[in-house]
Amino acid sequence: MKTIKSNVHYHVGNEPETDMYSEVLNGLRSEHKTISPKYFYDKKGSELFEAITMLAEYYPTRTELFILNKYRDEMASAIGTDTALVEFGSGSSEKVRTLLEAMPDLKEYVPIDISKDFLYQSARALSIEYPHLHVHAVSADYTEKFELPKLTSSRKAVFFPGSTIGNFEPHERVNFLKMTADFLKPNGGLLIGVDMKKDHAVLNAAYNDSKGITSQFNTNLLNRLNRELLADFNLEHFHHHAFYHAEKGRIEMHLVSLKNQTITIGSEHVTFAEGETIQTENSYKFTIEEFQDIARDCGFTPKKVWVDEKNWFSMHYLMVE
């Protein structure tokens, strides 16, 4: 039997700088309880998010895919040749396939994701579909400095779809974009998806779907804490709540305590009052001008922007010198 040489390689880009136990406890002991949205994405959480992207109410994924399909040749031209394509938060690597179809000469693809099992599974599947492509799967938290494997391309372009940039707080967003600009020097590019401000009813429906998948995604975070941190959250005692905060320009997602209760996490105790919440995610929305101004302040030069016919979603191509 002929042996087929694998074109996918696995790398560890960084190790977490803070341990999950300490970070979660600190967040739950703060005046306004929070847990970082990065902890949504264990294997089950990643699968639930993929299910969310297929929901009728959740417009970002299908709208971004529409833009990608319509303008992929323009995007590929902007990215250019002899470029390694690096994807932050690659997940299933589904969206990048549209871009890869317009880039037949691309030699290197670098998916980066914090969910190691999901990353390796997705990278293997993609490498089979694109046997000419060298796939370097990097397990890392891309919001922190990470090590890349040695690449042969002369420049890098980052693909960052899904409007994940909206999950960063303003100071975190600035730090992340500045770090990305440094990572892309010299002459690199960033193709990034950015959700736009729009009718509040559309926004609220996207995070409160009729099938309850987003609710499952949110409460799965507690399942993960129970499993990995030996916590004893009762999921029936918490309720998913998401809403658009117009003044702050963001969707807020919370888990609401339905009663006075005390939770054990490892050997520690955390008390909840009835109605008290854990804020699990913010998702900021932007106008084109707002986001381009932020990008300029972080060292990028806006080059192109593509939008759908409803002006619900935008994709920006930014460059650094």
TrEMBL record:
Pfam families in UniProt: Methyltransf_33 (PF10017)
Keyword Methyltransferase: yes
Annotated GO MF terms: methyltransferase activity
Top-rank lineage group of the source organism: Bacteria
GO biological process, one term: methylation
InterPro entries assigned to the protein according to its UniProt record, in alphabetical order: EgtD, EgtD_Methyltrsf_superfamily, MeTrfase_dom, MeTrfase_EgtD-like, SAM-dependent_MTases_sf
Histidine-specific methyltransferase SAM-dependent domain mapped to chain residues: 21-318
Assigned keywords, A-Z: Methyltransferase, Transferase
NCBIfam families hit by this protein: egtD_ergothio
PANTHER family: ERGOTHIONEINE BIOSYNTHESIS PROTEIN 1
UniProt name for this protein: Dimethylhistidine N-methyltransferase
Organism per entry: Fictibacillus phosphorivorans
